[in-house]
Amino acid sequence: MQRVDLVVASDLAGAVQWVAEHLVSASSAAIDARARCRIAFSGGGTPRDLYDLLATPLWRARVDWEYIDAYLSDERYVPSTDPRANYRMLRESLLDHVLIPVRNVHPVPTGGACLADDAARYEAAIKEDFAEDTASGSAVDRRAIPRFDLILMGLGPDGHTGSLFPGSPAVTMTDRCVAGVEPPDAPTPRITFTPKLINAAADVVVLTAGTLKAGALLRTLAAEGDPTETPSRAIQPTHGSYTIVTDLESCERLDAMPLRDGIVTTRV
Ligand code: 6PG
């Protein structure tokens, strides 16, 4: 049974602090090993506090941004300058405040011919980037699933993560790493990492908080459940660590039903 580390802070600020420390240590280890760290940042509102913290002088000095490559684990299908764009939120809250080289910032393409084409372009670009890491004159295996050093994800009240929404065919997709989706309840189409790409990562961290997410967290961790109904259940890294960082409010309902095996809880 795959282990999932459940890190419980008193509040969102504590959860954000833990993820910031984790990102510092994970990126340092990756850079020491390979002079590079590829991170996929999550969208939505919750991570904004994390990005604001990482952008502060004390924290931004703790990450070697020159060796960081920044991606997005999902994006709204709008221009990157659109106020709804996750890229714009990430850029304004973090990337504009750190010394990350422009070539290391990888926004999701959203201006192409269509949603499917742009999703395919993003997948191809990611595979090309990762192929550079392994190409030492050898033939590049484009079938290889890129292994992100760290993927940050969120959790919606309905159990969606990234833009993997309940009932979406992307939740059970096995032939693609990136998909274009048109969620019936989301105001815009989306481009999202699929479980195939997420689960290949070395390190997946879900940051979520608040009482509104208590039901989704319970369904995520329940012993029984269907990933097509609760897409966060599709996150099961095959050869990497999986951590859910949350607060006491989100844990309010975890005693309501039997939970899956493999959960290791840490109170911080
Ligand atoms: C998005 C995110 C989405 C988000 C959850 C949680 O583009 O909005 O990809 O999956 O992580 O909806 O959002 P909040 O953190 O704002 O609650």
Description:
- The chain is of the alpha/beta class and 268 residues long.
- It has helices at residues 12-34, 47-54, 57-60, 86-93, 115-134, 195-198, 214-221; strands at 4-9, 37-41, 68-72, 74-76, 150-153, 178-181, 190-193, 203-207, 241-247, 263-267.
- Helix 7 (214-221) links the parallel strand 8 (203-207) and strand 9 (241-247).
- Helix 1 (12-34) crosses helix 2.
- The chain is globular.
- The chain starts with a strand and ends with a strand.
- The relative contact order is 0.19.
- The model has no long low-confidence stretch (mean pLDDT 96).
- It binds 6-phosphogluconic acid.
- Residues 42-46, 74, 76, 86, 154-156, 160-163 line the site of 6-phosphogluconic acid.
Keywords, separated by commas or semicolons:
alpha/beta; 268 residues; 3-stranded antiparallel beta sheet; binds 6-phosphogluconic acid; 7 helices
The class by helix and strand makeup works out as: alpha/beta
Give Rg in angstroms.
17 Å
- Bulk shape: globular
| Tally of separate helices | 7
Distance between the termini: 24 Å
Main beta sheet: strand number and arrangement?
7 strands, parallel
H-E order: EHEHHEEHHEEEHEHEE
Please describe the topology of this protein.
Layout: E1 4-9, H1 12-34, E2 37-41, H2 47-54, H3 57-60, E3 68-72, E4 74-76, H4 86-93, H5 115-134, E5 150-153, E6 178-181, E7 190-193, H6 195-198, E8 203-207, H7 214-221, E9 241-247, E10 263-267
Parallel strand pairs: 1-9, 1-10, 2-3, 2-5, 5-8, 8-9
Antiparallel strand pairs: 4-7, 6-7
The structure holds 6-phosphogluconic acid.
6-phosphogluconic acid binds next to β4.
